Amino acid sequence: MNTVRIFIFLVLTIFAGNLVAGHGDAEKPLQKLFFLDFEKGFSPNAMGENNPLNKNFPELISGVGGSAAFFEGGKVLQYPSPKNLNKEEGTISFWLKPGDEMPKQGPLTLFAENGPKDAGENSFRIELFPNRFIRFSLKDSRDSYIYYHKIGAWKRNEWHHLAITWNVKKGAFIYVDGKAVSTGWMPQWEAKVYDSFFIGAGNANGEEASQVAIDEFTIYNRELTEEEAGKEFLKYGHFSAQILFKDPFIQAGKENILIAELVNPTDHPVVLKNIVCMLTDNKGNELFNAGLGEQSLEKLSHKTLQIPMKTDKSGTFSFSLTYLENNERKRAVTPLHVYESREKAVTQDWSVQMVSHIKAAEKEPIAETGGTLVCEASFGKYREAGSHFNDRFAMDFEVEAVGEPHLAIVTYPDDKPRTMEIMLQHFNGAIDFQSHTGVLTGEEYPVTNATKEFEIVFWPRSKKQAFVFMTAEKKYPAAVKDIKIYKIDKFKVASAESNFRGSVPFRSSGLYYEDPVLFHNFGTGRDLQGFVTATDRLVQYLNSLGQTEFEYPLGWYAGPLYGTSVEPFQPDIDGAQGGQRPHPDGYPAYLINRLGEQNIKFTAGLHIHTLPSLNKYALADWERIDHGEETVININKDGKLWYGYWHGNDPNFNAADPRVMHAVDTIVMEIAERYAKEPAFDGISLVMAKPKLFTFGSLASGYNDSNLQRFQKASGIKIPGYVPGDSSRFRKSYEWLMENAEAKKAWIDWRCQILYEHYAAMGRKLAVYRPDLKLKLNIFVHLMHNQRLADYLNEPPVEVMREMGIDPARYKNEKNIVINHTLVPADLRWKRSHYPPAIPNIDRTIMTAPEMVTSMQGLENVRVTIHDRYWEDAVGREKPMEGLTAMGVSEMVWRASTLNATGFHSLEPYVIALNHLDAASIVKGGYVVGTFGMEKELSEFSKALQALPATKFEDIPSLADPVRVRKKVVDGKLYLYVLNTIPAPAEISLKLKEPGELREPATNEVYAKSKTLNLKLKPYDLRVFVSSSATQDIAGGKVKVDKEWLTSLEKSLTDMENQAEKQEKLFRKHKPYLELAREHWSKKHFSRVYFLLQEGWGEQEATAEK
């Protein structure tokens, strides 16, 4: 291993460890508002009334340090709340020991206020679900729950310490046995005080009694720090060494190294003696055994133990490490998955057999809402749902091979505008998102007045299934003609023979996930075996499409998911406020290996809103902030702490705070340290959407003292309103900066420079691990800016990015940085259906106008993410179809569907990415598989794309629109691509500099040795050619466009001009855009005209009189 690499990671890790364990700034004095240790019965030491309000007292038993109370059914303690409980901030701390005979079900109540249980009522509750979890309910407006899920490992008659903290300004934390284990980071409550609270049960009658012993019950006046929570535990407990297994996936029949991290959290040295490792199968048979000697650990330290091991058996086994610590035998255990290597899949076609054929016009739906109609058309009869939002019907079918791959081919009418969801409904209650998909037809995707086919690959989880067809937008009804179900005997494997091979990588396309829900998408469980199976199914699907890239989250909203050592815990594994996203520790090791076997590269996605390690620096005390103490919490333009916000809002943290930067840097380096050795690992993507902690989000954020001070020092500009100690200095600084153009620009420049320096350094650190690794900055501008972005003739769109803190131009010379642009094709329909009234074509502008990405066009390597909007809907839970309910079937409770255009229209965003940015990599997705219904078109496009070297090509100005031609000499050969940028057929005659052979890699066809290349192009067609001559070149060319399509386009332009003339006053504002359209028409830039006429300015004028 590279010595420099080791040094970088160790420095970061040690610093991260110090951050986790170190002292925060002194808080206000800690005070016990309420303390009950049962030494004097049931009378606490309290700031308020201390007499219990009830008589049905619990039994007193032996506790951790004297007496404790055991709460069986009907027993409770009730006390007055005034002065004993502060709802603004505080901590509830106590010891508990589960009883010998715990109920199987919950909730069992440990603590509850005497208030309503409804959301928004802010009545705190701490509940126990035996062998499952403990949860803290804030009863805020979101009805948030904060979980600790690992009580199943607790032993009988074992005491554990629990501390739950809250602060109305920044959320809640849970500490178990002195360690931070869970967080709730989106507080949205107004503190409500109730007259009393209960300990040990849910009400005065002792119902929902906890069935546990409780001791040392304390309510504090403020949050405990992590250090203080540790001290509370150490009063009666002690810390022990921890063993953390990293990436417990190994290859069968091969010498492997399994990594265990040994952690000493104590303040004294520890020696682990007689360390023995063992691998056993599920019957207890020993497969491997080795003695590992002893290990010494200094106080508050950790070290890595490398364990050589080999086994020829494959499967999931139990790996244990036993050792003596202070003469006590201890054991650490992890599941270990041993897998057999696989060869690169051989090219083959589908092998399927039909198992069901549903003719929708002849078969009645098994369930429906809103009624259906059988319609007649020239292509036959079909069934159509009602035209109201959520009208839907279910067409059922049966399969025999449950769990085996199947292919559904849905034939639907492409005869009118439709916004249609297609969802697979299992009849066994499985929560499953395999087919949450759908179709967009008409309007921006002109209809064919014929039928189209939509393919869906799925793994049925019950014999009886149904596809549900739902109207996802009012007056855009769902419809279906036929459904054919096939069992897949062999998956297609697309050929990779035409992929570029040379001195640079080939271009790639693939899938992208925002949410870590692979198991939901491929019909498996959420355990280790479920992830393994989901990964194998994913790889099969990617191979069938010829996709060569996959991006998946390794860090989600609340931090890492993979089994981190640099953060104290992983909220999204156990269940943070973004949802529970369980993954086996080290899952990237298996995922990356399986992808690599098939030459599919992997990008690690980071989508982080918050991190547990930053909690200690999240100062929320305004008195201290006013006196100059620095908080990592974002201070916004109004001089307020901006924390606890969700999608669509600016970040919770100050992106320029060195502590925030360091926390991100440490995670990035940890990922590189663990996975850079895998050839398939391509790099790390920082997804810079508005709430993520990677940028400022907008100009409304980042007015922290440290930022304002550093800016003034660096720029030499003094902000008149910035006076230390003045509580209004943040607001005044913002107002002055916004009112002074020169200072405002300097402020934006400084922010961009600070983040540039941070990410450029991060990219260079990645290069130490492997020179070809990339840090991908995914600039995801929020749609709230779309109205402003759409007015691109008056303000460069890059200004919105710069206000976030990202200026693409600064990264031009950073070889390890890739700027990643995000397109959102479905925004038009999604906004129109979810947020009426909207000007939906604003969103077409944002996707289609080249001006959106002018700032990125000069960069060497650009990547594009096609982000799918989710049609999220709880209608299945709130208003299920009665037909399903009557059968005892629960309709899928939550939808998160991706709706695609189909046929060649599905390629529109891919063509835009290549046309405007010469993209070297294009990925698509979000919550679910985003490529259903477009497999054939995407496979063909990808095959051509991947024949290109991933390097910047040269434009040919005379061949840019409607057919784009670019060229590049690589490895002594001329590569060129021809891209039809319009949704209509076109022909091109290319003039070559010299006669010579041209080969088309996708078809392996060789073209005649002439100086002319004549091509007929399908709509949105991509063709790639290579000449063995480095002196070959393009001398020019002529393009011919489908006459009927061109006539229609000219009519649209003329109609708009006539309308503008009639409504000159109304149209005056947007006149420059119409003039631009006419200018492009005169230049025969028909693609630009086509998309210009669909932009928001045209939509506004077209509807101005209505």
TrEMBL record:
InterPro entries recorded: ConA-like_dom_sf
Pfam name, any one: Laminin_G_3
Domain of life of the native organism: Bacteria
Gene Ontology biological process terms in this record: carbohydrate metabolic process
Single GO molecular function: hydrolase activity, hydrolyzing O-glycosyl compounds
Protein's recorded name: LamG-like jellyroll fold domain-containing protein
Species annotation: Echinicola vietnamensis (strain DSM 17526 / LMG 23754 / KMM 6221)
